[in-house]
Every structure is written in C-alpha cells, then in structure tokens.
Amino acid sequence: MRDTTERPEGIAPETLKLVGTDKDYIYKNFKLLLEDKDKYQLMSKASNPYGDGLASKRIADVLEGKDTLLFEEKVLS
C-alpha cells in the first residue's frame, strides 16, 4: 500500500486503485471489492495497460522455434 505510483497508467482505466497507507481506507476499498459484485466485475474486466500476461510464453515459444505467426498477426493488425 502506498501513496504514489510510478505506474499511473493503470489508474485511469481502473485496472488498479491507489488507496494510500491508511489501514481503514485500505480495508474499506478491499471490502468494497469483496461485497460489490458490479464494482468487482468492472475492475476485473478493466483494460490492462501492462499487457496480457503472455510475454514469457511468447519468448519461450520463440526460443523453442515454435510458430509465432498468430501473435505476429495480432501485433501487426
């Protein structure tokens, strides 16, 4: 928990929320995600500016000589 972030691009699309260091405010926001299904769904489906989590798989595929055409098509289109 922190008051600042070096990755602010996640705040605008609500991929993350900066809650500071106050334990009551942290708890309030944590509880909100547990109890409000709509809020949870909104945040869990938010656009992720950090990628799709598949970079290491793609790197391993390239190193193993596997076909990467599908990935290349998505990047180029």
What does this 3D model show about the protein?
The chain has 77 residues and is an all-alpha fold. It folds into 2 domains: 46 residues, no CATH class; 26 residues, no CATH class. It has 4 helices and no strands. It is elongated. The model has no long low-confidence stretch (mean pLDDT 85).
Report how far apart the termini are: 38 Å
Instruction: Work out the number of β strands.
Output: 0
- The structural domain count equals 2
Computed over alpha carbons, the radius of gyration is 17 Å
Which blocks of ≥5 consecutive residues have pLDDT under 50? none
Largest sheet: none
Helix and strand string, N-terminal first? HHHH
Instruction: Indicate the proportion of strand residues.
Output: under 5%
State the helix count: 4
Instruction: Report the average pLDDT across residues.
Output: 85
From the helix content, strand content and strand pairing, which structural class follows?
Answer: mainly alpha
Q: Tell me the overall shape.
A: elongated
State the helicity in percent bands.
Answer: 40-55%
The gist of it:
By secondary structure, the chain is mostly helical. The protein is 49% helix and 0% strand.
How do the strands and helices of this protein lay out in sequence?
Layout: H1 23-35, H2 37-44, H3 55-63, H4 69-76
